[in-house]
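Much of the work behind modern protein science is quiet bookkeeping, done one molecule at a time. The fold becomes a row of whole numbers, each drawn from a learned catalogue of backbone shapes. The protein below has been through that process, and both of its lines are reproduced in full.
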Amino acid sequence: MASWWKVVLLPLLALPGAFAQAPPDGAHLNDAQVLKMYERTLQLMESGGVFVPDLTRAGRPILETSRLTLDSLKFMGFRNPPLEYRWLASLRAFLLLADALPKPVPFPEESRKQLAELREILHTTEEYFQTQLEQVQSDLRDPDRDEIKRYADDNLKLAPPRAGSPRVVFLGDSITDAWRLNEYFPGKDFINRGISGQITGQMLGRFLTDVISLRPAAVLILAGTNDIARGVDIVTATNDLTMMADLADHYHIKVILASALPVHDYNMALSPAYERTKKRSPQVIRALNDWIMAFSQKRGYVFLNYYQPMLDVRLMLTKEYSDDGLHPNPAGYRVMAPLALAAIEKAVGPGVSAQPQKRRLRLF
């Protein structure tokens, strides 16, 4: 019985993804290395209760937050400072808790190694996060505020629209960026031009390069939730949407305006970061959506109502449609996909060639 821990813990320490040596320099990690390091961190945190039983109970909320954060990073992509900070804070809290709880005497050497590895990973994660903060500061001074370079190479490589298959550009923020359109709309010439974190003003800034220059039959615009979260005035956001619509009209591109999605707070007990209504008031979301619907009716655009079908009886985003209360999960996208397709078919037809023609500028 004295060596039972060798049977329980050593296999965990040998799991794939363990660092044979000290973790690599945090300032130069690529996404694959970060994922490997984070998965290893979870393995070590999950095995922490083997020698410190109280850690299993007391550390459960921290561990659950870490799992959800890693799921979000896998879904949204790494190099996401808010999510990375949440991960870093959880790891720090876990180690502080592990240090504070009483430990058996003698304390097994393998468990000491386990905690030492977690501390090495913490140091590497701090270096990695510092690098991201420096990148954010650099981006703030970057002349490419609207991230036009993001899709520059893809736009150059994009083939011309195919006859008989209307091209549609999906323009938006992270909700669009994370949507794997080829999986939900196989065989369709649907182009994803979403960029995580963007507000309407940034989408307007790249409307020429990421929409008009691609010669689509229609553009589907899903925007506004980040404007609300950052305190951008609704008038400013609606002015940006109006100018995008005016540009699309000028180039004979059909306009599909989507409602902002609702949000939910159902997972806030797991992490305060999941209290979404604090930054995205349901009342403000409804006000924006009322404007989008009225504007669409006035202009004769197709209004794509994601909001109502994704709402629950508490007037929040249905819990099963989002793990973090903001971004749709696969179940959420499965609700959105047929709604988007119906709106597109209403705008340009199911398979009709409806390529826009260049409009000659008139001089006054």
Summary: The chain has two domains: 15-140, 148-348. Confidence is low (pLDDT under 50) at residues 1-23, 352-364.
